[in-house]
Amino acid sequence: MMPLFFLVSNEYSMYIYDKHDKRLIAERVAQYRDQTERYLAGNLSDEQFLPLRLQNGLYIQRLAPMLRICIPYGTFNSDQMRKLASISRDFDKGYAHFSTRQNLQLNWPKLEEVPDILEELASVEMHAIQTSGNCIRNTTTDQFAGAAADEIEDPRPYCEIIREWSTFHPEFAYLPRKFKIAVCASAADRAAINLHDIGIDIVHNDEGETGFRILVGGGLGRTPVIGTEIVDFLPKQHLITYLEAILRVYNQLGRRDNKYKARIKILVRAMGIDAFREKVESEWAALKDGPSTLTEAEFNRAKSFFVSPDYKTIDANTSAAQLKDQGLQNKTFGKWLERNINAHKAPGYASVTLSLKPTGYAPGDVSDRQMEAIADLADQFSFGEIRASHQQNVILPHVEQSNLLELWEKAKELGFATANIGYLTDIVCCPGGDFCALANAKSLPIAEAIQRKFDDADYLYDIGDIDLNISGCMNACSHHHIGHIGILGVDKKGQEFYQVSLGGSQDRDASLAKILGPSFSTDQVPTVIETIINTYVGERTDEETFLDTYRRIGLSPFKEKVYAK
Amino acid sequence: MPNSIIIDGNIAEDLWILVGKDATEIPAGPVILPQALWNESKDSLSDRGQVGVWLDSDEPPCLIEQDLESFAVIAVNFGSFMDGRGFSYGRELRDTYGFNGEIRAIGSFIRDQLFYLKRCGFNSFALEGSDQEEALASFAAFSDSYQAGADQPNPLFTRR
Questions:
Q1: Chain B interface includes A295 (CB < 8 A)
Q2: Model-level pTM?
Q3: Shared fold status for A19-122 and A316-414
Q4: Which CATH fold topology does A316-414 show?
Q5: In this complex, is the C-beta atom of A495 within 8 Å of any C-beta atom belonging to chain B?
Q6: Contacts of A301 in chain B (CB under 8 A)
Q7: Averaged in consecutive runs of 10 residues, what is the pLDDT profile of chain A (565 residues)?
Q8: Burial A125-135 (b: 16+ CB within 10 A, else e)
């Protein structure tokens, strides 16, 4: 039993830096400060500075630089959130944007101030390392990790082991293209492991031992591909050596002549999974059981950072009954409970999703004041813990059910209580042509127009679960290929048009959406979405979600209605 | 003025002659030969003692795997500094094949890659376009590393 004085509010369940981490992060800041100075002095060319700044999170965007701050596997705390708020106020315009890979983006930092921002981040054990560039990016996972009722283990210790291995990896900083790893340990796949360069599924074998089912070569972008299994059960001690073997094969054989064919998915498809696996196994033979083999001590060290908070002992039935009553008495609260709550593994607790998708605001955007308000809510209701989801919402992972009503009331005042999680208006959306230099078209105004079209809460409730993803270009930052409805901005002779696709899914039954037909003008999009929804409502059986109906009837009925003259 | 290179953290005169891919004759003296030329002419070079060989970005170490004992130096060319294949070649040469001689980076790599190159088994650097003396500071960018490398076979987790 831990002494009581030890249980101060800042005992977060998250990775805490030791002296090694602190020193390495400080050295990174100093390195980048020197590189920035040499660039500004004209001693580093634009071309040479490019990968250096990208691997410190800095893009040069349409209107200004953009800095992508890493939130390792989406886990952070109230102190860190407050620091992010003050950074966005002091170095930017007082707001920031949650990305689709559990990171946070600043839209207006000054290039010459980025080393100072990185130093501020380091003071709360944060950084922007490898959030861009042709390297191994932030490892992502379930936003409910460590709390979800359906997980077999907390995936974060494994994510942390991968983070340490991939950070400043000397061999894999100049890969053919970016490289993304996602980890999942639950029945529902909330990390989209089928759609990453490497997807890791934590599994237990018949003996109860932990291992990994590893998928390789999934991804979105121009050529969306669902990952293929390369190994069905990798004993856990081999995780790092096996990943290293995959990366070494990719680094050597991945295409470098065409950036659109440079991702590992293209290599795996060109070689075939069997030949690719053979190459990996051959590289692995030299690494297997070597010094990078993980030990029980290392697993225990990693796990020690993610202990459960000090939950109260609560009778689940009493708590559930009370909540049900509250929901019946207050219908609006009841609807919020249905949408914004995820089942927790501790009796009497719940994970709460604060919606960053109220109508009229850019999806995923938060102001400095809102960030501070979220930090306060986290301290009051969730042991100071916060999560970022790849759907661009913010989660309070460990909330007592008996506190949900109070939390909801506060969240409502702050504008985070839109009961739309998983609904059509919970739109995943990139910054698009308003901000991003790569975009072919704007995405934010499309999101807003759709939200305005579907602003009736009862109607949304009736439509049910729909993932709507809007990307401003083929790079697919908003994963339009795996939205039940996907919208892609395209450029046609200088005009913005939007291609609509249907039937994507990011869950275990992952599927890629199919293009409906010719693209639409900005003004047409909301009506097209409405026609698609009406078609679904007309065709569905009682229990069917949009995706169910689509899978049963296919694309044609939607197409006929949308393109009817 | 002789060419200088960085070797084992010091600046030294480069004694090797780098032979280009289009060369038809092998000059006298210590030469670093392109991989293809080495493989064509290795039988006639037995009286030269140890020589050097260089690999281009698309020439993996398996092409010279059988002859490693013949080489005093193996150079890896970076056609572009963004082409990271050479990093893996370094590790394969050092770690997988256990090559103990000089592994040299040549071509378009930049000063800011020195630390990672060293971790991948490179110990000599024909660095161009930057002041070599100033560039030495880049070897000390980090005092330690999380993961294993050719310079430190034991990852940090075994040493925490």
A1: yes
A2: 0.94
A3: yes
A4: Sulfite Reductase Hemoprotein; domain 2 (3.90.480)
A5: no
A6: 157, 160
A7: 43 88 97 97 95 96 86 96 98 94 93 97 97 96 96 97 98 98 96 96 97 97 94 98 98 96 97 98 97 98 95 96 96 94 97 93 93 98 96 96 98 94 93 89 94 90 94 92 96 94 94 96 96 96 95 97 92
A8: bbbbbbbbbbb
